[in-house]
Design a protein that fits this description.
It is a single chain. The chain is an all-alpha fold and about 160 residues long. The protein has a single domain (about 5-160), classed as Up-down Bundle (Ferritin). Helices cover about 85% and strands about 0% of the residues. It contains six helices and no strands. Helix 1 (about 5-35) packs antiparallel against helix 4 (about 95-120) and helix 2 (about 40-65) runs antiparallel to helix 5. The longest helix is centred in the N-terminal third of the chain and has 32 residues, at about 5-35. The relative contact order is 0.15.
Length: about 160
């Protein structure tokens, strides 16, 4: 892949991650507020904080590349985050927990691919930052997987959505 294409791919991943972190943080804010368990509330509030931290870090990387978030994607992710947040107050507890874990899984892949592109461009500090974010996302995924592991709906959700 040519350097210009690699740079374009990295910017695309960073734009996606930046807006995705917005959706996740908004959803997690509503998610922890919908829970009754103090331990789960605290864990997901911490995850929300880490999503805001990632958003700021990804925004700084975008800025260093001379790029900006995409307004349309920001609006879309705001709506998705708000809708996901509302859904946390409806229905069963497992559905938001399951999909949060599945989302975290895709975030890991996104950050890992971004790290590869950063390395190819010689942006080793970007690579390190993206790998660190992937590590945090792995902890998030593990938390959600552990939380839903014993739920009787998990086998059905795994078959339908291929995570867990």
């Amino acid at each position: 892949m040519k350097e210009v294409d690699t740079r374009r791919q990295l910017i695309g991943i960073l734009r996606s991650a930046y807006s995705g972190e917005l959706a996740a943080a908004l959803a997690y804010r509503a998610h922890w507020r919908a829970l009754s368990s103090a331990d789960e509330r605290a864990a997901i509030a911490k995850i929300e904080d880490e999503e805001w931290t990632h958003r700021a870090a990804v925004g700084a990387l975008l800025k260093r590349l001379g790029a900006e978030p995409t307004r349309r994607r920001e609006l879309l992710m705001t709506l998705i985050g708000a809708a996901a947040g509302i859904s946390c107050h409806l229905g069963s507890w497992i559905v938001p927990m399951y999909f949060a874990g599945r989302l975290e899984h895709s975030n890991i892949e996104e950050y890992e691919i971004g790290a590869v592109y950063a390395r190819q461009l010689g942006l080793f500090d970007f690579e390190q930052a993206l790998r660190e974010m992937a590590t945090v996302e792995r902890r998030h995924e593990a938390y959600f997987l552990q939380t839903v592991a014993a739920h009787p709906w998990l086998p059905v959700l795994k078959r339908m959505f291929a995570w867990g």
